[in-house]
Amino acid sequence: MVRWEPDAEGRLRVAALELYTERGFEQTTVADIAERAGVTARTFFRYFADKREVLFAGSSVLQDLMVTGLKDAPAGASPLTAIAAALDAAATMFGPERRTFSRQRHAVITANAELRERELIKMESLGAALAAGLRRRGVPDPRAGLAAQAGLAVFHVGFQNWVAGGDEDFADLMRAGMADLRGLAAEA
Amino acid sequence: MVRWEPDAEGRLRVAALELYTERGFEQTTVADIAERAGVTARTFFRYFADKREVLFAGSSVLQDLMVTGLKDAPAGASPLTAIAAALDAAATMFGPERRTFSRQRHAVITANAELRERELIKMESLGAALAAGLRRRGVPDPRAGLAAQAGLAVFHVGFQNWVAGGDEDFADLMRAGMADLRGLAAEA
Asked: What SS3 string covers B97-138?
């Protein structure tokens, strides 16, 4: 008989982050995570390829959200306004209920060189996807690449503030970051 | 008797890049590089800790150049103008004589996940150093972090164009990139 598992995936994520935080990423096994979540290792592998994927499964969700947000921006929107729409779309993923997870995840990644490298690769992939999205909107290179990288800059700094800070709204931080970027660029 | 070695370091760099390009990074040994450069392995290790360092020794030179350029920008310069001074300083490293090396290096790094990750870590370190330099100039966070990341965006896109392109001047590409960024930010 299959045991009914209310949000086994969510419990696995919470359990994994707790264990990575308590013991370190290296010292945690899939068996530990499954046990803490009250499921079998087999159930773990139904949701995640390995213990690293618990941390990075959200990266492709984020990229899809942002690329869709970019695509759905008004046809006449300037490149950075379209990027701002992508950042707005990202905010749907980073509600207050996710902040504890994101904060723990950020600390675990920062403490591990291999994870940090993987995170940077994911950001590089996000930048390439945003640049491709801008090119599909008719923005030529190098402006497409530059607007995409500028968007990553806003995301990067805003995200750091979101995980480090108090209870700021993610979307507000992204909008403030874009406004700051425009302000910086307007200073001679 | 010690053999006189005109620019052994330079010959080792050229030899390494040739071999990485011909055979791949993984398939090249320090002994191969030393042999091609006409020196002993011992001489190799006088200049580089390992075969990876041949590719990344320039990264700290670049960072020092840019941080010094930032520090030496006029006291009243805006954050992005100070960053532009750092990009100008970087250009002293990327003269036409370095383009072949940079182009081969870029191809070798792009083909190898581990090297790509290391390159991204170096860029992250450069971003942190520029942000710290801006803070020392009195720019508060999050503007310091954002201006530094925007500078990396210009560097990243301009560098890609420099290695991919014809005979554009590196400094010109950096200045055009900064102008593009300001232009993008000025569009509503």
From this structure: HHHHHHHHHHHHHHCCHHHHHHHHHHHHHHHHHHHHHHHHCC
